[in-house]
């Protein structure tokens, strides 16, 4: 494969075909038929190039990282090694939760290229489904399954200290992506930054208020420290609704290039926070055809069910493996059911509060930071959009500051309703 | 140096001389004079062999790790790679605080051997000085300096994320020593373990009570998680009063073989916890010659001064470097003195509570766990010893459970006095 002995973008179709032909793990997925290949670049994400390759006898997706951030350009360099960590995480999480992670067929470190299962139509990005007002009855079940399995099994509740520390060490290598999160989630929204933007002029005062809110800055500092220091589990690292592809019966989590050992609450919070953003955006999409009431109710129910199912499944895994290799809570110490319940309740309460904290940070940054969400962006009328965004922003600010007072996800849902 | 191309213990003096002769960094410290060398093994520690080498024209110390825990024997294997991490920490901390860390002359990874400055008499181990009822007027000044500099400069208050994560990754390699701490500090005292011991029969009920105290077990689980997961700074990892050598004018910290990126409070707590143990042991050493009253007062004063000076120096370093490379609190965000003071107060309060938590864990394990402290062990009368130990144990249990209620070190000192 001398032609690909050093990195080159596969933007040219002929080159792509050549690459696939020379890679048995890929060509076999196409039944070695290359005559009528349809190759389409579909990367609507912020960072990478994604090619769908469909032939008469099979299909696959090629994702390739480039040495900068796609949506910004070469002025913001970013290691293409991220493809390695994405692959590691896809494989690890895929092993733990095969039903909800696409299979990796092939990885090429030199080319920063992943070959994986094509999530064929009707799979669409969850965010787009939510914007269209669609509902997904199995979503809470599936996403709680994914989060419970991936987070539990990569934590010290399941790992030995030895395995944990060596995995932590390896994912320390994904530091550039961690730094990017630190900047765009925990820093930029709270200061003047060239990359920040918001629905101006409507939210000028709101953005300024964020930058001048001492209490908020105190809270976000604590969350940032936890993000930087706490190696609790192998987290996805970018688990918003744009990293989930869905049909009515299937839920698939893609794009874990930000994966590293970090706090569990960052994943759960990112996901729930993006559902809450979707909720607040619905008002902006309501029209005479569809008032979005059912959809909004479904989102609130899904938020509640996702956390409650997650908690239930996580604790069930804990109970199932309580005599296993995990070194966090030794059975000889946590040796009676009253005590075990006590530590589990404390663990889940702390994780719940972390989730609310990180979730609110992720909401705030999507309204006054660099990367916005299509849920709001697709609301054409700027004033109407700003109204939705302001409600979400105010809710997120309150949630970050008051998160420790919330006892249950039902309390959170009630508070969301209160905003209306 | 073919003779030393693989690991061998240097227990034989002739071999030791041969080794030194073949190692310029060591032989030069002896002025290349080998005729009248005095070689003495003085390892009174639990893990390694320490040789003092004194000649007519110089001196040095050789510390060698062996592949098991010395005080237990070959039945408890322990990686001799610990010498590598000890050297890394001695050099890093020595660079940050040269006045209080002995210079490393030489490190041999194959031989697991460190050559370092001989801390010549009247240097003695601080613990032994405290047992003898001696006082050290500069101790609080020096130890607060050591802790403030080593902890601040290896945290994200000073490091970039990039430097931090790569250092964290490297010290993940010291996992066997971390596991040992997890076991003997956070686990064994709270369960039946063959290695546990206590002053029997006097403390039989007390040891049992620890094993049956659900609230205590809940708290120690939280501390253990923080120890395992939180890469806050390069900590010494074994900072008890047996890892400090002192004279009236000099304070030197040795033996950081447990070093890794962990919570700062583990170091500060280990040190203060051991001072508190010393305080409670004094009653057992009081006699007609010396009622230990002055010494006890000095210990309490030193506890207070150590924390207060540490806090002052730590915050001063923070202020000095607030526009530096550290990525935890960006100056553009924490941009007014009111806010900066707010985050600093929160940071120091959290660190204070971590310190009290880890300090109490370290106290408890020294009374009902495998490794005891000479402060108590040297009290001949078992009943008298048990009385001292029980007071310390009860204080530690209370402190672990109630630590978040303490506002200042003065409150802690008052609570210690209350035990009397
Ligand atoms: N396995 C796949 N099957 C089908 N479509 C995919 C697949 N992976 C990615 N895509 C499409 O490509 C888009 C970008 O992929 P993503 O992994 O999110 O890239 P980025 O890292 O640039 O955000 C997704 O939003 C989705 O539409
Ligand atoms: N640099 C030194 N100078 C003088 N004595 C030392 C020095 N290093 C160690 N020692 C002596 O050796 C003993 C054991 O050393 P230490 O490093 O604590 O070993 P261990 O890791 O086995 O606990 C110390 O208690 C001290 O008496
Ligand atoms: Mg994406
Ligand atoms: Mg399943
Ligand atoms: Mg991505
Ligand atoms: Mg020692
Ligand atoms: Mg030691």
Characterise this structure.
Two copies of one chain form a homodimer. By secondary structure, the first copy, chain A, is of the alpha+beta class. The first copy, chain A, has two domains: 2-116, 2-Layer Sandwich (Phosphorylase Kinase, domain 1), CATH 3.30.200; 124-419, Aminoglycoside phosphotransferase (APH), C-terminal lobe (Aminoglycoside 3'-phosphotransferase, Chain: A, domain 2). In chain A, 51% of the residues lie in helices and 11% in strands. Chain A is built from 15 helices and twelve strands. The first copy, chain A, has helices spanning 13-21, 24-27, 82-96, 126-131, 139-153, 161-171, 175-187, 204-211, 214-229, 264-285, 293-320, 337-368, 374-377, 382-402, 409-419; strands at 38-41, 49-55, 58-64, 68-69, 73-77, 104-108, 113-116, 124-125, 233-235, 244-246, 251-253, 260-262. In chain A, the strands form four sheets. Chain A has a five-stranded antiparallel sheet with strand order 1-2-3-7-6, with helices on one face. In chain A, strands 8-10-11 form a three-stranded antiparallel sheet. In chain A, strand 2 and strand 3 form a beta hairpin. In chain A, helix 5 runs parallel beside helix 11, helix 10 (264-285) runs antiparallel to helix 14 and helix 12 runs antiparallel to helix 14. The first copy, chain A, is globular and about 60 Å long. The mean pLDDT of chain A is 97. Chains A and B meet through helix 6, helix 7, helix 9 and helix 12 of A and helix 6, helix 7, helix 9 and helix 12 of B. The complex binds adenosine-5'-diphosphate (ADP) (2 copies) and magnesium ion (5 copies). One magnesium ion (MG) binds at residues 45, 242-243, 255 of chain A.
